[in-house]
Amino acid sequence: MNPIFEEIKDAIVDGDEDLAIELAERVVAEKIDPVQAVQLGFIKGIEEVGAAWTSGEAFLPDVMMAADAMKAGMDVLEEVLAAGEGEGAYEDKGKIVLGTVEGDIHDIGKNIVGALLTSAGFKVYDIGIDQKAEEFVAKADEVGAKIIAASALLTTTMKSQKVLVEYLDDNNLRDKYKIIIGGGPTSAKWGEDIGADGWAETADEAVELCKQLLG
Amino acid sequence: MLPKFDILTDEQINKIHKNSLKILQEIGVEFSYDPAIEVFKKHGQRVEGHRVFLDPDFVENMVEKAPAQFTLHARNPEHNLVCGGENVIYMPGYGAPFVYDADGGKRDATMADYDNFVKLAGASKNIHMTGGTVVEPTDVSDDIRHLKMAYSHIINSDKCFMGSSSGYEFARDAIELTALLHGGLDVIKEKPALICLINSVTPLKYDDRMLGGLMAYAEAGQPMVIASLVMAGSTGPATMAGALSLQNAEVLAGITLTQCINPGTPVVYGSTSAVTDMSTGSLSIGNPENALFTSASAQFSRFYGVPCRGGGGLTDAKTVDAQAGYESMMVLFAASTTGVNFVLHTAGILQYYMAMSYEKFMVDDEIAGMVLRYLKGFDTESDEKMAYDVIETVGPGGHFLTQKHTRKNFKTEFYRPALSDRQSFDGWSKDSLDTNQRAKLKWQEVLANYTPPELDPAVKEKIEAFIEKRSKELMK
Question: What's the CATH architecture for A3-82?
Answer without folding.
Answer: Orthogonal Bundle (1.10)
